[in-house]
Design goal:
The complex is a heterodimer.
Chain A lengths: L1 H51 L2 E2 L9 E2 L3 H6 L3 H32 L6 H13 L2 H11 L6 H8 L14 H26 L3 H9 L4 H12 L1 H16 L3 H6 L11 H11 L3 H25 L4
Antiparallel strand pairs in A: 1-2
Chain B lengths: L1 H31 L3 H6 L15 H9 L2 H32 L5 H11 L4 H14 L6 H5 L6 H12 L3 H9 L4 H12 L1 H16 L3 H6 L8 H9 L6 H36 L1
The chains are: A mainly alpha, B mainly alpha.
Organism (chain A): Paenibacillus sabinae T27
Protein name (chain A): Binding-protein-dependent transporters inner membrane component
Membrane topology (chain A): Multi-pass membrane protein
Chain lengths: 305, 276
């Protein structure tokens, strides 16, 4: 009797095990294509970037690689161009992140209502986001043209004389900033909008019964409710901002006088134009650490609801 | 009464802001339809935004100078292949991570989430060396294969599949349908929205590819549309009208796709924002 029960149990257990093993096999086969691709084209290059940071070699002669320890990093921290690029990247980020987020929040508030044309306005704010950055950059070179550009013509109308914009080392970065905010604010607007629509209507009704005005509602209901969404928006905007590349690459090539050279542009130029693969990798590692730092600060700032 | 005043104020502000956002793009489209000298003649007046002397000459001449149709085809081709094969590879991986129990699945998920942080810029050079070692430079493989698997897409799929009730999957497996069949015949039909979302997010991202194609396409044959317009922009003689024609031509397909899948694109952006 006992043995019969045991035999039955064993049989049950073995079907269970067989099922388990089958599920494991299926699971592995389902993830294999993605995992292999990620290992080859993301994990491996990433590990190589870290390793190459300690070496010196020409991009075209990867066979003539030699280990140089921390030389790249020592060089990096005495390289004026690196500091200039780091500074430009930080400057761009520090201005773009708050300005763009504020514009986005304002736009979201403007279209979060029952206006008949609100969808049309949303599409208007969003259209530069869908347009590729290459198109935007080339378009704005024309708009910023010092002699025959649309923006200078508009400024004339207000009695302001021709501005050099991209051709001046003091205006080039700010011109790129203005354009970048214009291009991307619609993206963050959409996220804010979803956040706004997640706020319960009851809160507003209750507070207006208590006599709160629109401004007080904004200050005491809307902004606190958007805390997590805001942290998220600030983080993705910051990460996007430190990656600044296409705009200076197309519009100024880092000039005038390196005023728009950024970290991503420096990696590209050191690696592919000057072929200093080791040195470019060291900058890549620093760049990666900056992004990690930003992401972790977001994790710390996020509150559980 | 106060409500009407708020409404008017909202309309005024919205109209001003919309104009600010739309005027550059409007100028681009309108200028592409004007004779070159008219663009400059109109520059200092509102006429610069009105298509008064419509002509398609800019398009005709730009298309004679560079193979725009070829660039367009190249972009449509490789971006579609990335997105469609990406849907297959990433959805099935996301499904396994959401619904199948196997050793190491949690570790894999954690790795995939961690890898989302790695910025493309920091792996640019070693990735180039990998692709070069495979002798893929200036082939479609270089533009497509490295971007099929995508951590963010896997994560989106996994989140969506988590919400599918287990009972549906179990009843399918009792009916004797294998896991791949369950996935294809039950899960996929239920998951239209997430497929559409991942597709459009990926498509818009890769439509704008610029940095990578500069590196891995050496000749004209594989050049994508972004590189095409950039080289045209630096190709003398420079005519604004023709440049604006190529820019408009590049923008139309992606705007069309956006309007078609708008709902899913917005869902994709916002779900990432809400879930964090």
């Amino acid at each position: 009797m006992q043995t019969a029960i045991n035999a039955h149990k064993r049989e049950q257990l073995s079907t269970f095990n067989r099922q388990r093993r089958r599920e494991t096999l299926v699971g592995y086969s389902f993830v294999t294509p993605a995992v292999l691709l990620l290992i080859f084209f993301l994990v491996l290059p990433f590990l190589l970037a870290v390793a190459f940071g300690f070496t010196k070699f020409n991009l075209l002669r990867p066979d003539k690689i030699h280990f140089t320890g921390l030389d790249n990093y020592k060089l990096l921290f005495t390289d004026g161009l690196f500091y200039k690029s780091l500074w430009n990247t930080l400057y761009f980020t520090v201005i773009v992140v708050p300005v763009q987020s504020a514009v986005a929040l304002m736009l979201a508030l403007l279209v979060n209502n029952s206006l008949k044309l609100r969808n049309l306005f949303r599409i208007a704010y969003f259209s530069p986001v869908v347009t590729s950055m290459t198109v935007i950059a080339i378009l704005w070179i024309s708009l910023y043209n010092p002699n025959e550009g649309l923006i200078n013509s508009a400024l004339h109308f207000f009695g302001i004389s021709n501005q050099p914009f991209l051709r001046s080392s003091s205006q080039a970065m700010n011109s790129i900033i203005f354009m970048s905010v214009w291009q991307a604010a619609g993206y963050q607007m959409m996220i804010f909008l979803a956040g706004l629509q997640g706020i319960s209507k009851d809160l507003y009704e209750a507070s207006s019964i208590d006599g709160a005005n629109k401004l007080q509602q904004l200050r005491y209901i809307t902004i606190p409710s958007l805390y997590n969404v805001t942290v998220f928006v600030l983080t993705i905007t910051t990460i996007q901002a430190v990656k600044l590349f296409v705009q200076p690459y197309i519009m100024t090539n880092g000039g005038p006088e390196n005023s728009t050279r950024t970290l991503a542009l420096l990696i590209y130029q050191q690696g592919f134009q000057f072929r200093n693969a080791g040195y470019a990798s060291a900058i890549s590692v620093i760049f990666f650490l900056i992004v990690v730092l930003i992401s972790f600060s977001m994790k710390k700032l996020l509150r559980d609801k | 009464m106060r409500n009407t005043r708020t409404k008017v104020l909202l309309y005024v502000l919205n109209i001003i802001m919309s104009l600010l956002f739309i005027i550059p793009l409007l100028w681009m489209v309108v200028s592409s339809l004007k004779p070159e000298n008219q663009i400059f003649a109109d520059l200092s007046s509102l006429k610069s935004l009105l298509p008064l002397h419509i002509t398609l000459d800019n398009y005709r001449m730009a298309f004679e100078r560079i193979p725009m149709m070829k660039y367009l085809f190249n972009s449509l081709f490789y971006v579609s292949v990335i997105c469609i094969s990406g849907l297959g590879v990433n959805s099935i991986c996301g499904y396994a991570l959401a619904k199948l129990r196997f050793r190491g699945s949690e570790f894999m998920l954690a790795c995939i989430i961690a890898l989302m942080i790695v910025p493309f810029e920091s792996i640019l050079m070693p990735l180039y060396l990998v692709v070069n070692a495979l002798h893929w430079v200036n082939t479609w493989f270089a533009l497509i294969v490295p971007f099929i698997a995508n951590c963010f897409s896997i994560f989106m799929f996994r989140q969506f599949f988590m919400d599918i009730p287990n009972e549906i999957l179990e009843s399918a497996s009792i009916d004797g349908s294998g896991p791949l069949k369950t996935f294809a015949s039950i899960v996929v039909p239920l998951s239209g929205p997430v497929f559409a979302t991942v597709f459009i997010l990926d498509f818009i991202t890769h439509w704008g590819d610029f940095m990578w194609p500069i590196l891995v396409t050496t000749g004209e044959s594989l050049r994508n549309i972004q590189l095409g317009i950039q080289t045209f922009f630096t190709l003398p003689p420079i005519f604004y009208g023709q440049i604006m024609a190529t820019l408009t031509f590049t923008t139309v397909p992606i705007i069309a796709l956006f309007l078609l899948l708008q709902k899913y694109y917005v869902q994709g952006i916002t779900s990432a924002g809400i879930k964090g």
